[in-house]
Amino acid sequence: MIYKTRAMAKKGFLQYLFRYFSLYPGIFFSIFSIMNRFKNLLKTKNLPYLNRFPTLNIKQQSSFLQVYSKLKPRGRIALFSGCSSQYLMPSITEALIYILNWLNYEVIVPKQHCCGAPLLSAGFEKEAKKLARKNLEIYKSFNIDGIITPCPTCAHFIRDVYKEITGEGLNVLKFADLFEENLKEFKGDDRSNVFFHISCHTSNYVNDSDKTLKLLKKFGINAEKKTGCCGFGGLFSFLFEKQSMDILRKKVLEYEKADMIISSCPNCIIQFKSAMKDKKILHYAEVIQKILFKGEKYGRAL
């Protein structure tokens, strides 16, 4: 009902901006990166969204299939990066690939497209369906055990919303379920103020935060679980910037004493980094990858 109403509503500049972002994310982020470099010369009061993002780390999108093989893999998993991880924080995608290979999975990385969530949120139902069918065609062409994505919004969208708008969804796996129950515990030094921020889509749709929290504990990380909206909300933070900032300020106060913030959502990380530049803010995949890669105690590895 909400999406149908948005499809009928009159659309403004930002809605159309999100439309082109979803259809052509590579071009969009390249232009955005150039603008961001010269934002001090621009009137940023008229372009407030330039201040929303941390320093952009644009990664050129691959135009071909990438396969990260194992000699005798226990299975094959395809990666759905999501736009934020693909273009703004490629270290999250790289961390997931590393961990999946460490778990002895072969990793398939097809050419990446937007999941379509921004399109549907902005009221472009027809375009969202078209993009959904494209992604369904790509991922269903592989013989895989399932799909992993670092973005809970993408996970909900390609698993649940695709089913609503096209009749079929994709098999999205839960990250923590890939680890064996008898996984050895990694020794870490206990930081007293580590918070695990659970995003809205994780809480309401993906529902894997408790398992991820237990997994982090096995890696020597005793984090306190925190919920509540960060204020990003995709299109919401651009259309209603004041309200978004009001919500963010409350979270900044809540996390004032944090030594580190771990999140389940790349978009929450973007939001927090825009306001807490002195804090260490990481996706849980980055945290686990650093511990595995360094082979060191938690405090030294990060």
UniProtKB/TrEMBL annotation:
Protein name: (Fe-S)-binding protein
InterPro entries for this protein: Cys_rich_dom
Keyword terms: 4Fe-4S, Iron, Iron-sulfur, Membrane, Metal-binding, Repeat, Transmembrane, Transmembrane helix
GO function terms (MF aspect): 4 iron, 4 sulfur cluster binding; metal ion binding; oxidoreductase activity
Every Cysteine-rich domain range: 77-158, 194-273
Residue stretches spanning the membrane: 16-35
Organism expressing this protein natively: Thermodesulfovibrio autotrophicus
Pfam families per the UniProt record, alphabetical: CCG (PF02754)
The keyword Repeat appears for this protein: yes
